[in-house]
Amino acid sequence: MNAITPTEPRSEAAAPLADSRFTVPGMRCAGCIGKIERGLAEVPGVASARVNFSARRVAVSHDPALDAEAIMEEIRKLGFEVERAADNPLARDDAETKRLMRALAVAGFGMMNIMLFSVSIWSGADVVTREMFHWISALIAVPVVAYSGRPFFTSALMALRYRRTNMDVPISIGVILATAMSLYETVTGGAHAYFDGAVMLLFFLLAGRALDAMMRGRARSGIAALLGRMGRGAQVIDETGAARYVEAERLAPGMLMLVAAGEALAADGTVVDGRTTIDASMLTGESDPRPAGPGDLVHAGMINLGDPVRVTVTAAAQDTAIADIARLMDEAGQSRSRYVRVADRAARLYAPAVHTLAFLSFCGWMVAGAGVYKALTIATAVLIITCPCALGLAVPAAQVVAAGALMRRGLLIKDGSALERLAEADQVLLDKTGTLTLGEPRPTNLQVLTPQGRAIALGLAQSSRHPLSRGLARALRESGVEPAAIEGVCETAGTGMRGTLDGVEVALLRPELETGGLAADLLIGGFRTRLAFADPLRPDVKPTLAALEAQGLPVAIASGDRFEAVAAVSRELGLFGMAAMRPADKLALLERRAAAGHRVLMVGDGLNDGPALAGAHVSIAPGGASDVSQQAADAVFVGERMMPIALAVKVARATMRVVRENFALAVLYNLAAVPLAIMGFVTPLVAAIAMSGSSLLVVGNSLRLARAAGKEEAA
Amino acid sequence: MTILGFLIPLALVCGLSGLFFFFWAMRTGQFEDLDGAANRILLDEDGPQ
Predict the structure, then answer these.
(1) Closest chain B CA to residue A48
(2) One digit per residue, pLDDT tens: chain B, 49 residues?
(3) With left for phi above 0 and alpha for psi between -120 and 50, is residue A56 left, alpha or beta?
(4) What pLDDT does residue A283 have?
(5) Looking at CB atoms within 10 Å, which of A87, A634, A667, A675 has the fewest?
(6) Spatial separation of the C-alpha atoms in residues A451 and A442, rounded to whole Å
């Protein structure tokens, strides 16, 4: 796929290598490329690593035994934030972009060569030369139109089949009519052939399509990913007391499951025996692991962090809470697909108007007694002049520029329609955990540790994936602590990490006495230090909220968390808050607001936000969100700051302003050019100049956005 | 004007070779990482080769 890879996979790796991709937004310079590629190449099990700097991605080719989580940890150790990227970047969208690029290249080739002949014809070639040049143009133009026009023809046919009309219908009719007229002209030895106009039209329009396709993110496949989070099966204990493995689909209510430490539950159920802590973050979005004992309800997808427990199944397979979420997301996503892009809305008005105009000028000239041939030539000229070249190019050009500016500021927009919907948002709903807050516990009293204590804490914490360890490691790494080289580090699930440093026993353990709140004990020798943890608010919450309010977007909190936790945050930030909302409640809230005529921007991260993200008018997820939420959302912001949300709304609105200006320019251009075409003054030369002139004008106008965004960046 | 018989095919061949070169470049992923190439030149030679 990538021919310029200098790091060939090592030959000793006989087993087939797995490929994983990661997004590393923090790469800024050549040094970062070198650091990541060399650092990863030294990791055992990694065959090669290749950075794609433009996409801020790393492709790692590695031993299948090494899992993605471990590689992400290695990248974090190199000092970079990392998220998992799409598994399959060469999906359908990419193929579509490539097809459009090829069509664009062919149209560009045709346009330049035909223009070569057209210019000599316009500068007054004599009859024999002109006819020969027309024939050569036809030989180039017909295959080019057939090849490059396909994206438009198929889409127009599809629209006509459903008795609708879109932008592609007038384009296709214009191009086909112009080509057919020019062929007739060539055969009969006429003076005016529009081959250059037809091909140029295709070229400009394809440029717009290619820009639009390049911007589009991957297709949404959230549902499959969601169900993948559920445990695949469970150990079931039968009457005789023997345990056997049963797959998730075959579990039935009444069965007794044995859930080991670290295992994901495969069905909903009630704990009957044992005490443990459960990570329920994927359903509730709440980061604190919560205790569970006999009589407590647990759900599929939750992870048992502590000791083994026995659970009686109450709901399995398609009846679990997580399967419900998947269904809700599926239904919610369908309302979004009814959104009509602004260019298509314009086309609904535009296409009938253009067709009527061309038809009327044909009729008019027939009535005036000009003959079928002349009337048809003029109708063709009207169609070519009015073809929505400027529109087809102007909207994607503005959106690509805006998306590029936002990407540099840490917000990835998935497609152009997301920008359009973002500009329309008039309310914001925020999830709490992971959206307003960082979504992971951070130590609150690091100052109690000595520098050596910090190094030991990092040395222990960086080898564990427990949420507390990860938060601790991250906070320490950010404050520039280097890890101590601890020997024999081992993790006991539910207890903590142990190791030795220079013969002294060190450990990071769960507190022996429950003290309320999250905490961990750092043991050095016999000396015990208590570390307290909390999930802090993002650093720039207040300015972001102020910026959103300033843009006329009222903000509210909709959280699945406990009432007291939400009340504390909403009091601190002065926001209206709703607590203890289940996924269906959030979706119902969105539907009520949509019914009241509001367009809600939903920002959330947890799986429990999935349906709301899919159902909201427009949605944004933080980079730390679950895969499902990132797929359901229209945009993803990376890093700890949430200012990109406010910025995105601002840029989206600026983009729509430019798009409206472009529409106005296109209308003005038509007002000037169409009367000329109807009166029959438009020759192929005039058409070529008018078309390229108007396209340059709107593209130039769109590019102003880059300057505006650049100024913003400097400020 | 006989020179046209030579120049026109020449122009077309030039254009076509450009087109095929572009197709080749796209197929082999030359456009995958445009900014990366500009930065890689700054990396030291004792890289991950």
Answers:
(1) B48
(2) 688 788 888 989 999 999 999 999 988 888 777 777 888 888 765 544 4
(3) left
(4) 65
(5) A675
(6) 18
- A303 in helix, strand or coil? strand
Chain B: give the shortest CA distance to residue A287, in Å.
Answer: 37
Check if the beta carbon of residue A604 is closer than 8 Å to that of residue A629: yes
Question: How many residues in total does chain A contain?
Answer: 715
**How many C-beta atoms surround the C-beta of residue A463 within 10 A?**
18
The Cα–Cα gap between A598 and A173 comes to: 39
- A605 in Cβ contact with A626 (< 8 Å): yes
Judged by a CB distance cut-off of 8 A, whether residue A706 touches chain B is no
Q: Where are the alpha helices (DSSP H) in A216-341?
A: 222-228, 281-284, 321-336
Residue of A82, A84, A85, A87 whose CA lies nearest to A470: A82
Assess A55–B contact: CB distance below 8 Å, yes or no. Answer: yes
Tell whether A339 is within 8 A of chain B (Cβ). Answer: no
Which element (helix H / strand E) includes A505?
A: strand A504-509
CB distance A429 to A558 below 8 Å: yes
Chain B residues touching A7 at Cβ < 8 A: 48-49
Mutate to test the interface with A, among B24, B32, B49 (most CBs of A within 10 A): B32
Subunit contact A34:B34, Cβ cutoff 8 A: no
**Cα gap B23→A638, rounded to integer Å:** 35
The pLDDT of residue A12 is: 45
**Rounded CA gap, A173 and A89, in Å?**
35
Could you confirm whether A344 is annotated as catalytic?
no
Residues 6+ apart with CB under 8 A from A657: none
Nearest by CB to B22, which of A33, A41, A105?
A: A105
ipTM: 0.83
Residue of B nearest to A140 (CA): B12
Residue A112 has its nearest CB partner, among B1, B15, B41, at B15
Comparing alpha-carbon positions, the chain A residue that sits nearest to B36 is A53
Chain A residue nearest residue B15, CA to CA:
A109
The answer for A 137-156 residues in CB contact with B (under 8 A) is 140
Is A55 close to B44, i.e. CB distance below 8 A? no
Rg, chain A, Cα only: 31
- Distance (Å, whole) CA A151 – CA A140: 19
Count of other CB atoms within 10 angstroms of residue A693: 12
Give the other-Cβ count within 10 Å of A468's Cβ: 23
Q: Is A103 helix (H, G, I), strand (E, B) or coil?
A: helix
What does the alpha-carbon distance between residue A612 and residue A130 come to, in Å, rounded to a whole number?
Answer: 64
d(CA A107, CA A144): 6
What residues does A603 pair with on adjacent strands? Answer: A430, A620
Residues of B in contact with A105 (CB under 8 A): 19, 22-23
| Catalytic site residue from A196, A431, A535, A627 | A431
Distance CA A558, CA A336 (A): 21
Q: Give the per-residue pLDDT at A382.
A: 85
Q: Which residues of chain A have pLDDT under 50?
A: 1-13, 87-91, 217-226, 714-715
Closest partner residue to A7 among B28, B35, B48, by Cβ? B48
Give A101's contacts in chain B (Cβ within 8 Å): 26
- Report the alpha-carbon distance of residue A195 to residue A147 in Å, rounded: 14
Let me know: does A413 contact A585? Beta carbons within 8 Å: no
Neighbour tally for A229: CB within 10 Å: 19
Q: How far apart are CA A25 and CA A53, in angstroms?
A: 10
pLDDT tens string A240-275: 777 777 777 778 888 888 887 767 788 888 888 888
Each residue's pLDDT tens digit, A521-551: 888 887 888 888 887 888 888 888 888 888 8
CA distances from A54 to A39, A91, A250, A409 (A): 20, 19, 46, 14
Closest-CA distance, B34 to chain A, in angstroms, reads: 6
